[in-house]
Amino acid sequence: MRSWAENILGASGDFDVLPTIGSKELVAWLPTFLESKSVNYPEIAYPTYLVGAMIAGAKATTVGISPDTWKNADLTWINTPSNPSGRVHTIEELQAVIEFSRTHNAVVASDECYLNFPATGADQPTSILKVAAGKNKGLVSVISLSKRSNLAGYRAGLIVGDPELISKIREIRKHAGMLVPTPVQRAMTLALGDEVHVKEQAARYAARRDVLRPALEKAGFTIEFTQAGLYIWCTRNESDWDSITWLANRGVLATPGRFYGENGSQHIRVALTSTDAHIADAARRISA
Ligand SMILES: Cc1ncc(COP(=O)(O)O)c(C=O)c1O
Asked: Of all atoms in ligand 1, which is nearest to the CA of residue 23?
Protein backbone atom coordinates (compact mmCIF):
# COMPACT_ATOMS: atom_id res chain seq x y z
CA MET A 1 0.00 0.00 0.00
CA ARG A 2 2.93 2.32 0.75
CA SER A 3 4.45 1.85 -2.69
CA TRP A 4 1.07 2.57 -4.33
CA ALA A 5 0.82 5.73 -2.23
CA GLU A 6 4.27 6.79 -3.41
CA ASN A 7 4.12 5.74 -7.06
CA ILE A 8 0.51 6.40 -7.99
CA LEU A 9 -0.85 8.84 -5.41
CA GLY A 10 2.37 10.85 -5.37
CA ALA A 11 2.87 10.91 -1.58
CA SER A 12 6.39 11.67 -0.39
CA GLY A 13 8.26 12.67 2.76
CA ASP A 14 7.11 11.34 6.10
CA PHE A 15 3.69 9.70 5.73
CA ASP A 16 1.75 6.73 7.05
CA VAL A 17 -0.92 4.45 5.55
CA LEU A 18 -3.87 2.83 7.33
CA PRO A 19 -6.50 0.49 5.82
CA THR A 20 -10.11 1.39 6.64
CA ILE A 21 -13.45 -0.41 6.39
CA GLY A 22 -14.30 1.34 3.12
CA SER A 23 -13.86 5.09 3.07
CA LYS A 24 -17.40 5.70 4.36
CA GLU A 25 -16.35 4.42 7.78
CA LEU A 26 -13.55 6.97 7.89
CA VAL A 27 -15.68 9.83 6.58
CA ALA A 28 -18.36 9.08 9.18
CA TRP A 29 -15.97 8.71 12.11
CA LEU A 30 -12.99 11.01 11.42
CA PRO A 31 -14.46 14.00 13.32
CA THR A 32 -15.02 11.69 16.31
CA PHE A 33 -11.50 10.19 16.09
CA LEU A 34 -10.01 13.70 16.01
CA GLU A 35 -12.44 15.09 18.63
CA SER A 36 -13.28 17.86 16.16
CA LYS A 37 -15.60 20.56 17.47
CA SER A 38 -16.06 22.19 14.08
CA VAL A 39 -16.15 20.69 10.58
CA ASN A 40 -16.18 22.42 7.17
CA TYR A 41 -17.50 20.44 4.22
CA PRO A 42 -18.37 21.26 0.58
CA GLU A 43 -21.68 23.02 -0.07
CA ILE A 44 -22.62 20.36 -2.64
CA ALA A 45 -21.46 17.10 -1.10
CA TYR A 46 -21.68 13.45 -0.29
CA PRO A 47 -24.02 13.39 2.76
CA THR A 48 -21.71 11.45 5.10
CA TYR A 49 -19.49 14.51 5.82
CA LEU A 50 -22.47 16.06 7.62
CA VAL A 51 -23.41 12.74 9.26
CA GLY A 52 -19.83 12.43 10.59
CA ALA A 53 -19.99 15.91 12.11
CA MET A 54 -23.37 15.04 13.68
CA ILE A 55 -22.00 11.81 15.21
CA ALA A 56 -19.16 13.85 16.76
CA GLY A 57 -21.55 16.57 17.96
CA ALA A 58 -19.43 19.06 15.97
CA LYS A 59 -20.62 22.30 14.38
CA ALA A 60 -20.89 21.66 10.63
CA THR A 61 -20.47 24.47 8.10
CA THR A 62 -20.76 24.23 4.31
CA VAL A 63 -17.99 25.96 2.34
CA GLY A 64 -17.24 26.89 -1.28
CA ILE A 65 -14.11 25.97 -3.23
CA SER A 66 -11.89 28.91 -2.25
CA PRO A 67 -10.46 28.84 1.30
CA ASP A 68 -10.56 32.68 1.22
CA THR A 69 -14.15 32.44 2.42
CA TRP A 70 -13.63 29.63 4.96
CA LYS A 71 -13.78 30.09 8.69
CA ASN A 72 -11.22 28.12 10.63
CA ALA A 73 -12.40 24.64 11.67
CA ASP A 74 -10.77 21.70 13.41
CA LEU A 75 -11.42 19.60 10.31
CA THR A 76 -12.14 20.60 6.71
CA TRP A 77 -13.24 18.16 4.00
CA ILE A 78 -12.57 18.62 0.33
CA ASN A 79 -13.62 16.12 -2.36
CA THR A 80 -11.84 15.86 -5.70
CA PRO A 81 -13.19 14.69 -8.12
CA SER A 82 -16.46 15.57 -6.46
CA ASN A 83 -19.45 13.39 -5.87
CA PRO A 84 -21.95 14.50 -7.17
CA SER A 85 -20.58 17.14 -9.56
CA GLY A 86 -17.42 15.52 -10.97
CA ARG A 87 -15.60 18.81 -10.40
CA VAL A 88 -11.81 18.51 -10.19
CA HIS A 89 -9.70 20.77 -7.96
CA THR A 90 -6.94 22.51 -9.90
CA ILE A 91 -3.37 22.43 -8.58
CA GLU A 92 -3.77 26.11 -7.57
CA GLU A 93 -6.95 25.29 -5.64
CA LEU A 94 -5.17 22.46 -3.83
CA GLN A 95 -2.25 24.76 -3.02
CA ALA A 96 -4.68 27.26 -1.51
CA VAL A 97 -6.22 24.50 0.64
CA ILE A 98 -2.77 23.39 1.86
CA GLU A 99 -1.93 27.01 2.66
CA PHE A 100 -5.16 27.26 4.69
CA SER A 101 -4.20 24.13 6.66
CA ARG A 102 -0.70 25.48 7.37
CA THR A 103 -1.83 29.00 8.30
CA HIS A 104 -4.56 27.81 10.66
CA ASN A 105 -2.80 24.67 11.87
CA ALA A 106 -6.01 22.87 10.84
CA VAL A 107 -6.61 19.36 9.58
CA VAL A 108 -7.68 18.97 5.95
CA ALA A 109 -8.99 15.60 4.75
CA SER A 110 -9.12 15.25 0.99
CA ASP A 111 -11.65 12.63 -0.11
CA GLU A 112 -10.06 11.28 -3.29
CA CYS A 113 -12.10 8.15 -3.84
CA TYR A 114 -12.69 9.02 -7.54
CA LEU A 115 -9.09 10.09 -8.14
CA ASN A 116 -8.29 7.29 -10.57
CA PHE A 117 -10.76 8.37 -13.22
CA PRO A 118 -9.12 10.84 -15.62
CA ALA A 119 -10.85 14.12 -16.36
CA THR A 120 -12.15 15.26 -19.74
CA GLY A 121 -10.64 18.75 -19.27
CA ALA A 122 -7.08 19.94 -18.80
CA ASP A 123 -7.03 19.68 -15.00
CA GLN A 124 -6.40 16.07 -14.05
CA PRO A 125 -7.40 14.78 -10.59
CA THR A 126 -4.37 15.15 -8.32
CA SER A 127 -3.90 14.07 -4.73
CA ILE A 128 -3.43 16.79 -2.14
CA LEU A 129 -0.39 14.79 -0.95
CA LYS A 130 1.31 15.11 -4.32
CA VAL A 131 0.85 18.88 -4.21
CA ALA A 132 2.04 18.99 -0.57
CA ALA A 133 5.38 17.60 -1.85
CA GLY A 134 6.34 15.81 1.36
CA LYS A 135 5.10 18.43 3.84
CA ASN A 136 2.17 16.37 5.06
CA LYS A 137 1.44 17.90 8.47
CA GLY A 138 -2.31 18.26 8.96
CA LEU A 139 -3.12 16.56 5.64
CA VAL A 140 -4.71 13.20 4.87
CA SER A 141 -5.90 11.69 1.63
CA VAL A 142 -8.89 9.35 1.82
CA ILE A 143 -8.91 6.54 -0.74
CA SER A 144 -11.47 3.89 -1.66
CA LEU A 145 -11.15 0.70 -3.67
CA SER A 146 -14.93 0.60 -4.16
CA LYS A 147 -14.79 2.71 -7.32
CA ARG A 148 -11.16 2.22 -8.41
CA SER A 149 -11.36 -1.59 -8.37
CA ASN A 150 -15.12 -2.20 -8.07
CA LEU A 151 -14.55 -3.69 -4.60
CA ALA A 152 -17.48 -1.97 -2.85
CA GLY A 153 -18.59 -5.23 -1.21
CA TYR A 154 -15.14 -5.81 0.30
CA ARG A 155 -15.33 -2.55 2.30
CA ALA A 156 -11.79 -1.63 1.36
CA GLY A 157 -10.38 1.86 1.81
CA LEU A 158 -7.30 3.55 3.16
CA ILE A 159 -6.09 6.79 4.59
CA VAL A 160 -2.66 8.18 3.73
CA GLY A 161 -0.86 11.22 5.12
CA ASP A 162 0.35 12.94 8.29
CA PRO A 163 1.88 10.13 10.40
CA GLU A 164 1.00 11.81 13.71
CA LEU A 165 -2.66 12.09 12.78
CA ILE A 166 -2.77 8.56 11.43
CA SER A 167 -1.15 7.19 14.58
CA LYS A 168 -3.87 8.85 16.67
CA ILE A 169 -6.57 7.45 14.37
CA ARG A 170 -5.01 3.96 14.46
CA GLU A 171 -4.98 3.87 18.27
CA ILE A 172 -8.66 4.80 18.55
CA ARG A 173 -9.85 2.56 15.71
CA LYS A 174 -8.15 -0.55 17.02
CA HIS A 175 -9.74 -0.15 20.44
CA ALA A 176 -13.10 0.39 18.73
CA GLY A 177 -12.74 -2.89 16.81
CA MET A 178 -12.44 -1.18 13.43
CA LEU A 179 -9.97 -3.66 11.98
CA VAL A 180 -9.78 -4.58 8.32
CA PRO A 181 -9.73 -8.40 7.99
CA THR A 182 -6.44 -9.86 6.69
CA PRO A 183 -8.01 -11.42 3.53
CA VAL A 184 -9.41 -8.00 2.60
CA GLN A 185 -6.01 -6.37 3.18
CA ARG A 186 -4.42 -9.01 0.91
CA ALA A 187 -7.02 -8.33 -1.78
CA MET A 188 -6.33 -4.61 -1.44
CA THR A 189 -2.59 -5.14 -1.90
CA LEU A 190 -3.24 -7.16 -5.06
CA ALA A 191 -5.72 -4.63 -6.47
CA LEU A 192 -3.43 -1.68 -5.73
CA GLY A 193 -0.61 -3.49 -7.55
CA ASP A 194 -2.46 -3.40 -10.84
CA GLU A 195 -3.37 -0.30 -12.84
CA VAL A 196 -4.59 -2.12 -15.99
CA HIS A 197 -8.06 -2.90 -14.64
CA VAL A 198 -8.35 0.67 -13.35
CA LYS A 199 -7.68 2.10 -16.82
CA GLU A 200 -10.17 -0.34 -18.39
CA GLN A 201 -12.86 0.68 -15.91
CA ALA A 202 -12.11 4.38 -16.41
CA ALA A 203 -12.48 3.92 -20.18
CA ARG A 204 -15.89 2.29 -19.62
CA TYR A 205 -17.13 5.26 -17.59
CA ALA A 206 -15.76 7.73 -20.14
CA ALA A 207 -17.54 5.89 -22.99
CA ARG A 208 -20.83 5.86 -21.04
CA ARG A 209 -20.47 9.58 -20.37
CA ASP A 210 -20.02 10.17 -24.10
CA VAL A 211 -23.28 8.27 -24.77
CA LEU A 212 -25.40 9.99 -22.10
CA ARG A 213 -24.06 13.54 -22.36
CA PRO A 214 -25.47 14.39 -25.84
CA ALA A 215 -28.81 12.77 -25.01
CA LEU A 216 -29.20 14.89 -21.87
CA GLU A 217 -28.12 18.04 -23.73
CA LYS A 218 -30.67 17.31 -26.48
CA ALA A 219 -33.34 17.07 -23.78
CA GLY A 220 -32.44 20.58 -22.58
CA PHE A 221 -30.11 19.80 -19.69
CA THR A 222 -27.03 21.94 -19.09
CA ILE A 223 -24.14 19.84 -17.88
CA GLU A 224 -21.94 21.39 -15.20
CA PHE A 225 -18.43 20.27 -14.21
CA THR A 226 -18.69 16.48 -14.79
CA GLN A 227 -15.00 16.41 -15.63
CA ALA A 228 -14.25 13.16 -13.82
CA GLY A 229 -15.79 10.54 -11.58
CA LEU A 230 -18.88 8.43 -12.07
CA TYR A 231 -21.64 10.99 -12.46
CA ILE A 232 -23.17 13.59 -14.73
CA TRP A 233 -24.31 16.69 -12.83
CA CYS A 234 -26.86 18.69 -14.80
CA THR A 235 -29.75 21.13 -14.62
CA ARG A 236 -32.75 22.25 -16.65
CA ASN A 237 -33.22 25.26 -14.37
CA GLU A 238 -36.29 23.66 -12.85
CA SER A 239 -36.89 21.84 -9.59
CA ASP A 240 -34.79 18.69 -9.33
CA TRP A 241 -38.00 16.74 -8.66
CA ASP A 242 -39.48 17.95 -11.98
CA SER A 243 -36.39 16.69 -13.81
CA ILE A 244 -36.51 13.40 -11.87
CA THR A 245 -40.21 12.95 -12.75
CA TRP A 246 -39.55 13.72 -16.43
CA LEU A 247 -36.82 11.06 -16.49
CA ALA A 248 -38.89 8.57 -14.46
CA ASN A 249 -41.69 8.87 -17.04
CA ARG A 250 -39.13 7.60 -19.55
CA GLY A 251 -38.05 4.77 -17.26
CA VAL A 252 -34.77 6.43 -16.22
CA LEU A 253 -33.73 6.72 -12.59
CA ALA A 254 -31.51 9.59 -11.39
CA THR A 255 -30.88 11.29 -8.04
CA PRO A 256 -32.32 14.68 -6.99
CA GLY A 257 -29.55 17.23 -6.46
CA ARG A 258 -30.96 18.35 -3.10
CA PHE A 259 -29.76 15.03 -1.63
CA TYR A 260 -26.31 16.70 -1.82
CA GLY A 261 -27.31 20.02 -0.27
CA GLU A 262 -29.80 22.84 -0.75
CA ASN A 263 -27.72 24.38 -3.57
CA GLY A 264 -28.41 21.24 -5.58
CA SER A 265 -32.19 21.70 -5.64
CA GLN A 266 -32.24 22.50 -9.37
CA HIS A 267 -29.76 19.81 -10.38
CA ILE A 268 -29.83 16.07 -10.82
CA ARG A 269 -27.09 13.45 -10.62
CA VAL A 270 -27.05 10.79 -13.32
CA ALA A 271 -24.83 7.79 -12.53
CA LEU A 272 -22.64 6.02 -15.07
CA THR A 273 -22.62 2.81 -13.05
CA SER A 274 -25.30 0.91 -14.97
CA THR A 275 -24.34 -1.53 -17.73
CA ASP A 276 -23.33 -0.27 -21.20
CA ALA A 277 -26.60 -1.71 -22.58
CA HIS A 278 -28.74 0.09 -19.97
CA ILE A 279 -26.88 3.36 -20.52
CA ALA A 280 -27.42 3.11 -24.30
CA ASP A 281 -31.10 2.34 -23.72
CA ALA A 282 -31.46 5.27 -21.30
CA ALA A 283 -29.83 7.61 -23.86
CA ARG A 284 -32.35 6.44 -26.51
CA ARG A 285 -35.30 7.05 -24.21
CA ILE A 286 -34.04 10.49 -23.13
CA SER A 287 -33.51 11.68 -26.72
CA ALA A 288 -36.71 10.11 -28.12
C1 LIG B 1 -17.33 11.12 -2.06
C2 LIG B 1 -17.44 9.76 -1.46
N3 LIG B 1 -16.67 9.46 -0.41
C4 LIG B 1 -16.72 8.25 0.16
C5 LIG B 1 -17.57 7.27 -0.31
C6 LIG B 1 -17.61 5.93 0.40
O7 LIG B 1 -17.19 4.89 -0.39
P8 LIG B 1 -16.74 3.47 0.22
O9 LIG B 1 -17.18 3.42 1.65
O10 LIG B 1 -17.43 2.45 -0.59
O11 LIG B 1 -15.26 3.42 0.11
C12 LIG B 1 -18.40 7.54 -1.39
C13 LIG B 1 -19.34 6.52 -1.90
O14 LIG B 1 -20.14 6.71 -2.75
C15 LIG B 1 -18.32 8.82 -2.00
O16 LIG B 1 -19.07 9.14 -3.06
From this structure: 11
Q: What is the pTM of this model?
A: 0.96
pLDDT band at 227 (very low <50, low <70, confident <90, very high): confident
Tell me how far the alpha carbon of residue 236 lies from the centroid of ligand 1, in angstroms.
27
Using CB atoms within 10 A of its CB, is residue 80 exposed (0-12), middle (13-18) or buried (19+)? Answer: buried
Pocket-forming residues, ligand 1, beta carbon under 6 Å: 22-24, 27, 46, 79, 83, 111, 113, 144, 146, 152, 157
Residue 97 CB neighbours (<10 A): 24
Based on the fold, state whether residues 176 and 55 are members of the same structural domain. yes
Nearest CA owner, ligand 1 atom 12: 24
What are 152-191's pLDDT values in tens digits? 999 999 999 999 999 999 999 999 999 999 999 999 999 9
Asked if pLDDT for residue 207 goes beyond 90, the answer is yes
Question: Domain with 233 in it: what CATH number?
Answer: 3.90.1150.10
Centre of ligand 1 from the C-alpha of residue 114, in Å: 9
Percentage of residues in the chain with pLDDT exceeding 70? Answer: 100
